[in-house]
Amino acid sequence: MTKKTSPPVAVNLPLALTLNRESPDALHLQLAAQLRAGVTSGTLAAGVVLPGSRALAGALKVTRGVVTLALAELAAEGVLDAVPGVGMRVATGAARPVTLPSAAALPAWFVMPPPAPVDAGQPHGGISFKPGVAASHLLDVRAWRAAWQAATRTAPGGDYGPAAGQWPLRVALAAFLARSRGLNADPARLMVTAGSLSALGLIAGLLPRGSRVLFENPGYRAARQVLLDSGHTVIPVPVDENGLITDTLPPARLAVVTPSHQYPLGVRMGVPRRLALLEWARQHDALIVEDDYDGEFRYGAPPLPPLTALDEGEDGGGRVLYLGTLSKVLTPAVRTGFLVAPAALLPALERARVLADAGHNTVTQDALTHFILGGHLDRHVRRARRWHGQQQAALASALAPLTEGELAQLGGIEAGLHACLHLSPPLNAEAVAAALALRGIFVGTLRPFTVKISAQQALVLGYGGLTVAQIEAGARAIVEVVRAESGRLTS
Fold first, then answer.
1. 289: three-class secondary structure by DSSP
2. Which of 45, 46, 173, 422 could be joined to 409 by an S-S link, Cβ 3.0–4.6 Å?
């Protein structure tokens, strides 16, 4: 009888690798998970060089492609570095050994959760098309330093600030939203948060435990995990070139959407679907979370009104809670976002914030208030929009040979800081990403963002943290690899 599980293989590494051919998980995913666990636990220390793909494949008795896909995924996550002439080695900073109590010291009921579903840091070396990276080098350092000097001119107070945030910053952020997004938000309905995930966690806590929540598929996996960790049932809803498909939405208490620049496809929801979603919320007595994470950046395409602006309710707002963040428009270092909610929900949100962390850092709030009221945030947005527009044009131009040759289609390029390169059949995105990783070009795919259905064959290309020269070089490599892979498959 043939064994379905390979015996543990040491392959000159301080851990045994075992692949189960009866598992529903693909072999390359099993291998990647075991190597990742070895790194994050500290068993594989920083700088350890892995065996070559041929040797590893021979030891595990799998095809070389299985190993190549696994190593490429870990390289894209920043767990491994591809070093020319050396091979794959454990990246510095990827191994985070954690000293835990012994199993006997832990409660019997405790189950260690899996790692948070967030992107790893930038790989060392090469070109990483990691989405969500801001252009912080454009920051006016003199103005930034002056804002913090103003905030620290006097000693901080001895008490906690308001849970919803300090009033001057709420006023400044509301005015910024009116200028940048055309959203007339009452400062009294605006709460300063520690970012969009923090805000979503507060909202999730308002729902009865076990509530049904509609969520875009593919979608923002960290936000999905926040809802799951809050004890809710997440219902994936498909997305097409016009955003969330609203034709047959099932009943739920909440829908979470990214209508301005869908994450990760980059498409935007048209006005008819926005209105249909609002009508769905009215019919089912539901709420909507509108995550507008990078709505300030549009390149030629006219802005659509936020869902919140279309939401007609009584007493200061209806059914939409608007999430914004300064992470993309300024820097994630300040860990500051904002939430615009219906007035009736503010007391419950403030209570949740008090119990979560008693409110946002007051010194940071003071500094941001000085920075915004001095006009520096608006000037920074204008600089960043010009810069990102140059990046977007460079990416589109360098990838034109693929789009013109009908090997791929570039989507989501009209806005934001990332785009999706949809590959034509029979191209496989994972295989293309693996081949690129071997050349030091790191891209994502839609697989990690997709649940219950087969992921579309597309590369996720974040360009916000790259120079124009890096974008052009990386895109040229993408063109070469896609062409080579297409030729191999059709020959």
1. strand
2. 422
Residue 390: what residue type? Q
Other beta carbons within 10 angstroms of residue 237's beta carbon come to: 20
Angle between helix axes 376-398 and 167-181 (nearest 10 degrees) is 40
Cβ-proximal residues to 480 (8 Å cutoff; 6+ apart), any chain: none
Query: In the β-sheet with 458-462, what is the strand arrangement from edge to edge?
Result: 408-411, 418-423, 458-462, 444-445
Counting Cβ atoms within 10 Å, is residue 438 exposed (0-12), middle (13-18) or buried (19+)?
A: middle
Decide if pLDDT at 228 tops 90.
Answer: yes
- Kindly report, as residue ranges, where domains of CATH 3.90.1150.10 are found in the chain: 127-133+379-490
Q: What is the CATH number of domain 142-374?
A: 3.40.640.10
Q: How far apart are CA 142 and CA 462, in angstroms?
A: 28
Q: Name residues whose C-beta falls within 8 Å of residue 3's C-beta, 6 or more positions apart in sequence.
A: none
At the topology level, CATH places domain 27-105 in: Arc Repressor Mutant, subunit A (1.10.10)
Where are the CATH 3.40.640.10 domain residues in the chain? 142-374
Q: Which amino acid is at 50?
A: L
- 3-state secondary structure (DSSP) of residue 432: helix
- CA dist 269 and 179 (Å) reads 21
Q: How many CB atoms lie within 10 A of CB 227?
A: 22
Report the amino acid identity of residue 30: Q
Q: What are residue 420's phi and psi, to 5 degrees?
A: -120, 125
Topology, domain 127-133+379-490: Aspartate Aminotransferase, domain 1 (3.90.1150)
Sheet holding 190-193, edge to edge: 190-193, 337-340, 320-325, 287-291, 254-257, 212-217, 233-240, 243-244
Q: For residues 271-292, b (16+ Cβ closer than 10 Å) or e, as one string? A: eebbebbbebbeebebbbbbbb
Give CATH 1.10.10.10 domain extents, the chain.
Answer: 27-105
- The span from the CA of 158 to the CA of 132, in Å, is 36
**Cβ contact 271:303 at 8 Å:** no
CB atoms within 10 A of CB 168: 16
Lowest mean pLDDT among 92-101, 166-175, 210-219, 395-404: 92-101
Q: Are 436 and 443 in contact (CB under 8 A)?
A: yes
- Reported as type and span, the H/E element at residue 307 is helix 307-310
**Residue 199: enclosing H or E segment and its boundaries?**
helix 196-204
Give the model confidence (pLDDT) of 88-123 as tens digits.
Answer: 888 877 765 545 455 567 788 888 888 888 766 555
